[in-house]
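Quick one: structure for this chain?
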Amino acid sequence: MPRRKQLIFKIQDLKCAVHIIEELSKLPQLNNFDMKSIELTIKENKPAPQILKKDVDTLVDRLQRGFSANKHKLTQLNGYYLITNIHLSKWMKVTPATVNKWLKDGLIKYSEKSYDNLKFFDVNEVISQLRKQKQ
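Got it. Here's what it folds into:
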């Protein structure tokens, strides 16, 4: 992923410089600092994370096939299959790091039926979350 663009402004070039310098001068930790050397750095917004639309159908198909072929091997608790990110990554043929990144970015979520100390996925919930990425 390419670096985000950033713009740097010298404080002296801004009309509000006097007010900013005055405000910062009141802070005791900045007593020994040159207020005229202040620069503002503004970074470009990160693009929203997403799964490519063309890949969603492939991922859903792989997930459904993997689950169907392996559900007899899965542990169940109170009628729910305990599906981990490792299961998802194997079935969808992506790395566990990819699944963890999707979790972190909010593209997929643990099952609503999960417990505080036991997080697992529901295949139907993951499929609907993946399909939302296609919209």
